[in-house]
TrEMBL record:
Record-annotated Sigma-54 factor interaction domain positions: 146-375
Keywords: ATP-binding, DNA-binding, Nucleotide-binding, Transcription, Transcription regulation
Name of the molecule in the record: Sigma-54-dependent Fis family transcriptional regulator
Gene Ontology BP term (one): regulation of DNA-templated transcription
Organism from which the protein derives: Candidatus Methylumidiphilus alinenensis
């Protein structure tokens, strides 16, 4: 127990106890602090209480606490006579004319010499998922704007960081929206080619003739409309990096020409009559298996081995459960400064739905969901109604297959879910609670109920 010294007591009497208490309360401006007497009439109301609960001290001083604060969940914050010390009790309260909000409550009651209740101090801290678990810096990998705290993604980033220092050709495998181009750019920025061009092309977006001209360039008169020489991507990326996205879609007639560039570092432009030499590092990406494409005759086996020197597999978002809530708040933080809406909380039901959703569009889809919520919703709480239509369908919460990684919130009993969440997060209470879509206090209560260590 902390104790004050005689010097402190003397100093406090000089500045005045009221001044000292007011100064201390101002240091916690993101929380509600108030004091009540033996009849629970409010004696002190902090500036944070005015701002968060929307009631001035003139409106509440001298009035019963119950007139200012109405409890909807948890024990009545105004009923302190039976209590000694409370720490981090979860309550949901509202004030007159305002919406209900969730808080973590800490209180200390005082009793006179006869043991009668004499008053209390109370602190209410707004519940915020960002505050309930803010991962330490060493827990979050930030590699050129690629964020993750999931072990599978961190392992992929380790490979990416190591291979970036070499000249090795890299093939990035991953579903649409997993960030393949971000990874390719990170590889370029970590290499000695970082001061040279980084160019990209989607092999599925152009017709074979246009793609050939875009990659290798063409000479004037090579075809109708070719009124001048055109430098292709290989020429323009000389000394740097060329990213071939969706390389499995590359037409067979162009695969042999790409193989020649990889083997001999030279090519002939469309309609040209001389060979050009280039120094370009190739990074390719695909959501398909090149081995399967080789089996069905759609991809050259020799080119596959040239491209697939170091394969890097990016896990889909549904397998990065530790990243879903973290990335959700990362994107919310991007939107918050630009109004008119500022999201401060995510309702537990909405968070559970987001955590269970299979995310076929991966991170790109998560970005779109956040943008949708900012566009259609209002107020500080992200609710179920703020989610896109596909989340309102009965199939929005799937039953995952037994081999799907992560916590399957609908597949086992609650105690098993809690055990698995704690195992995945290495015992980190905040991360486990976030994964399960509940507060730290709720998780603590359920651990005690199920006797989960």
């Amino acid at each position: 127990m902390s104790q004050s010294s005689p010097l402190f007591n003397r100093w406090l009497s000089q500045i005045g106890p009221d001044t000292g208490i007011e100064a201390l309360s101002d240091l916690l401006d993101n929380g509600v602090i108030f004091a009540v007497d033996a009849e629970t009439k409010i004696l002190f109301w902090s500036r944070g209480a005015e701002r968060i609960l929307g009631l001035s001290s003139e409106q509440v001083i001298g009035k019963p606490c119950s007139e200012a604060i109405h409890c909807e969940q948890g024990k009545d914050p105004c009923n302190l006579a039976e209590l000694g010390i409370i720490k981090d009790q979860y309550v949901k309260i509202r004030c007159a004319g305002s919406n209900s909000n969730s808080f973590f409550r800490t209180a200390r009651a005082f009793f006179d010499a006869e043991g009668k209740f004499a008053g209390a101090f109370e602190v209410l801290r707004p519940e915020s998922p960002m505050q309930s678990y803010s991962p330490p810096e060493e827990d979050v990998e930030n590699f050129h704007g690629i964020f993750s705290r999931d072990p599978a993604m961190k392992n992929a980033l380790k490979i990416i960081r190591n291979v970036a220092e070499t000249e090795t050709t890299v093939l990035i495998r991953g579903e649409s929206g997993t960030g393949k181009e971000l990874v390719a750019h990170a590889l370029h920025m970590e290499s000695h080619r970082r001061d040279k061009p980084f160019l990209a092309v989607n092999c599925a977006a152009l017709t074979p003739s246009l793609l050939e001209s875009e990659l290798f360039g063409h000479a004037r008169g090579a075809f109708t409309g070719a009124v001048r020489d055109h430098s292709g991507l290989f020429q323009r990326a000389n000394g740097g990096t060329l990213f071939l996205d969706e390389v499995a879609e590359l037409p067979l007639e162009l695969q042999s020409k790409l193989l020649r560039v990889l083997q001999e570092r030279s090519f002939i432009p469309v309609g040209g009559d001389r060979s050009l030499t280039v120094d370009v590092r190739i990074i390719a990406a695909t959501h398909r298996s090149l081995r399967e494409e080789v089996k069905v005759g759609k991809f050259r086996e020799d080119l596959m081995y040239r491209l697939r020197v170091v394969p890097v597999f990016l896990p889909p978002l549904r397998q990065r459960r530790l990243d879903i809530s973290f990335l959700l708040w990362h994107f919310i933080a991007r939107h918050n400064p630009y109004g008119p809406r500022r999201i401060e909380r995510v309702e537990p039901d909405a968070m559970r739905l987001l955590l269970n959703y299979p995310w076929p569009g991966n991170i790109r889809e998560l970005q779109n969901v956040v943008e949708y919520a900012f566009a259609v919703g209002r107020g500080p709480d992200l609710t179920l109604a703020d989610l896109p239509p596909e989340f309102q369908e009965p199939t929005a919460i799937p039953t995952f297959p037994a081999n799907a990684p992560g916590v399957h919130l609908n597949s086992r009993d609650e105690a098993s879910q809690i055990v698995e969440a704690l195992q995945l997060t290495k015992g980190k209470i905040g991360a486990a609670a976030e994964m399960l879509g509940m507060t730290r206090v709720t998780l603590w209560r359920k651990r005690k109920k199920y006797q989960v260590q």
